[in-house]
Write a structure and sequence with these properties.
This protein is α+β, with helices and mostly antiparallel strands. About 35% of the residues lie in helices and about 35% in strands. It is built from three helices and four strands; from the N terminus they run βαββαβα. A four-stranded antiparallel beta sheet has the order 2-3-1-4, with helices on one face. β2 and β3 form a beta hairpin. About 25% of the residues are buried.
């Protein structure tokens, strides 16, 4: 699973759709608004951002991360691979099937 933040919902939706259409993710969820607090270039910042959660097979995570980073509007995007240690076997198989052709 990949967790990534975006400056707005539209940017997250566009990249999420791209991940699914290219077979890099079986499913993407976009959470439209959250508040982030972080230090950037020596200044504490607060920003409203959107969250993208991509479900994919572990084998495709590196390709998906590279695609997100290459097409992301941020200079240093937050893109994290989060290991999935279990879940519904039917759902996990469905995700794996959806990303096999990538």
């Amino acid at each position: 699973m990949i967790y990534a933040t975006f400056p707005d919902r539209q940017a997250a939706l566009a990249l999420g759709r791209d991940l699914v259409e290219q077979g890099l993710a079986g499913c993407v969820n976009v959470l439209p608004s959250m508040t982030s607090i972080y230090v950037w270039k020596g200044e504490t910042e607060t920003a409203e951002e959107a969250v993208l959660i991509a479900k994919l097979a572990r084998a495709g995570a590196d390709r998906a991360v590279a695609h997100i980073v290459a097409n992301h509007p941020y200079e240093t995007p937050a893109v994290l691979v989060v290991p999935v240690v279990g879940g519904s076997s039917d759902y996990l198989n469905w995700v794996a099937d959806g990303t096999r052709h990538a």
